[in-house]
Amino acid sequence: xxxxxxxxxxxxxxxxxxxxxxxxxxxxxxxKEAVVYQIYPRSFKDSDGNGIGDLKGxxxxxxxxxxxxxxxxxxxxxxxxxNDDNGYDISDYRNIxxxxxxxxxxxxxxxxxxxxxxxxxxxxxxxxxxxEHEWFKKSRSSRTNPYRNYYHWWNAERxxxxxxxxxxxxxxxxWKYDSLTNAYYLHFFSVKQPxxxxxxxxLRNEVxxxxxxxxxxxxxxxxLDAFQFVSKDTSFPPFPKGYEKxxxxxxxxxxxxxxxLQEMNNKILSKYNVMxxxxxxxxxxxxxxxxxxxxxxxxNMAYAFDAIDIAKPEGYSVLQFKRIFTKWDxxxxxxxxxxxxxxxHDQARMVSRFGNDSPKFREVSSKMLTTFILTMRGTPYYYxxxxxxxxxxxxxxxxxxxxxxxxxxxxxxxxxxxxxxxFMENIKFSCRDNGxxxxxxxxxxxxxxxxxxxxxxxxxxxxxxxxxxEEKDANSCLNYFRKAVQLRKNNLVLVYGKYQxxxxxxxxxxxxxRELNGKKLLVALNFxxxxxxxxxxxxxxxxxxxxxxxxxxxxxxxxxxxxxxxxEIN
Length: 570
Ligand code: NOJ
Description:
Elements: H1 2-24, E1 36-39, H2 41-44, H3 55-60, H4 62-68, E2 72-75, E3 79-80, E4 92-96, H5 103-115, E5 119-124, H6 134-141, E6 153-155, E7 175-178, E8 183-186, H7 201-217, E9 221-224, H8 247-251, H9 257-267, E10 275-279, H10 285-292, E11 301-303, H11 318-331, E12 339-340, H12 350-354, H13 362-375, E13 379-383, H14 404-415, H15 420-430, H16 467-471, H17 477-490, H18 492-496, E14 498-502, E15 509-516, E16 519-526, E17 532-533, E18 544-548, E19 558-559, E20 564-568
Parallel strand pairs: 1-2, 1-13, 2-5, 5-9, 9-10, 10-11, 12-13
Antiparallel strand pairs: 3-4, 6-8, 7-8, 14-15, 15-16, 16-20, 17-19, 18-20
The protein binds 1-deoxynojirimycin.
1-deoxynojirimycin binds at residues 85, 88, 125, 189, 225-226, 279, 345-346.
C-alpha cells in the first residue's frame, strides 16, 4: 500500500511538472532559446598567413566560442566565390572558397561545433549567384541554352528595359547589357551578382537540392540572404521616377514569394529540425507576419532594419529607438517571432553607432547595449568583436576601404558631381568595413589575427581592446557578455516573458519589464552620457540585482552614464 502511494505521488509530480512547463510556456523551440553568435570568417582568424581568415582559424578558436556560452554560430558565406562581394557572390554552392579551406575543414568545423553543443547556421545566398557560376556562364552563352531561364534576361530588340535600381552598381542601374546575346540581365546587387529567376521551378529545385545537400551534412539552419527580393514581376512594369528612394516598397515581397517559401518549407525545412531566418522583413508588420507565423509554414523568423537604420553620424533619438522596438514587440506578442540585433557584417560597430566609443564610455556603453540585446524578447544575434567592445576604425582615405559597394558609390558620387567630402564623412561612420576589421585576439602584430598582411587594416586600438587582455579582467566587456548570456540561458523569462515598457516617454532611459509565470524582471538602461532618472511605481530598493555594468549599481532610479541594471522584482 505504502509503495503504491509513493508511486502515485511520483507520477503526480511528474505530470504536474510536465503540464506546467507545457502550458505555461507554449511552443518552446530551441531556436527561440538560442543566442546566435555571428562570425565573419574573413576577419576572424587566419591560420595560414595569407591575411584572410579561414576555417582552420575558426577551428583553432572553438574553445573560445564555447566559452562565450552561445549555442548557435552563423557564418557568412563560405562557398566558392570570386569575392566580388566577399562571398555573397557564389560560383559553386557545393564547395568551399579556396581562401577559407576545404570541405574537410568544413566537416571538422561542424563536428567541433556539435561536440561543443553549438549549432551551425549556414548563410544561403540565392537571390543571386556569381556571374562566374556555371549556370550563368551557360545562361549567357546563347538565348536558347537550357539555363537561359535561370536568370532574368531582357532582349535588346525590345528597347531599353524599364529602370531598375541597383544598390551596388556604379551607375545605380540593375540592368547590364551583354553583347554576346544582345540582351540585358538583371542584378539588384553588383554586375557580378546576377539575380536568379525564382519564377523558374527548375531553378527553385536546384536551390532545394543545395539545401538538401547541406542539411544532410548536418547544418542546423539557414540564413536566407536578401530573400525578400527573390520573386519578381517578370513583365517588369515601369516604376515611378525616384522610386529608388523607397525601392524596398517595389522590390520586396512580390506575391509569389510566399508560395515559394511554403514549397521550400515543405521540401526541406520541415524535413529537418533546422532553423530559418530571412534577411529583411518586407515593408510592414503584415509582411513580416506573413513570413514567420507558424501556421503559414514558411520561416521561423526574419530580421527587420527599422531600428538598425536610425543611427546617423549626428546621433539618433532614444525615444525613436524605444518606439521601434516596442512596436515590433507588441506586433509579435501573440504570434510570430523576432530577431534582436544591433550590428552585423553590413553595419559599422555597435558601440560606435548606438553607444559611445570614446575611451571614457566605450566599455560601459558597450555593456549597456549587450544588456539590451540579451534581455529583449526575440532571438538575439550578436556580432563577433562586439563582445570585446570593438569600435569603428573610421578610415579617412578611400584607398583604405575594400567594400565593393562603397567604392562603387564613391565613383557614382564623383561622376555625378556629388559632395565627396560629405560622402567620406558618412562612410567613416557607417561603412560596413568598420565592422569587418580583423578580430582583435591579443596585442601581438596584427592583433594576433594573421602572420601575413591582413586583407583589411587592423584597428590600431587592438593593443588595448583584445581578448587576451579582457580575459584577465573580470569586469571586461568580454566577461560581461558571458554573464549576460548566462543570465538569458538561466531565465526563460528573458526569452518568453511578456515585455512591457516603463516610463515610455523618458528620452534618456529605456526601461522595461519582462514577466513570466510570476517571475518579473526590470531592465533599466541609460542610453546617455549623463545621469538620468526614470519613473516607475515598482519598488526596486530591495530588488535583487541580476546583472549590472557598474560595481555599485543604482537602486534609486537614478542611473549613471550608460548604466544598465537588471533587477529581479519577484
Ligand atoms: C546582404 C548581405 O548581408 C550583404 O553582405 C550582401 O552584400 C548583400 N546581401 C548581397 O548579397
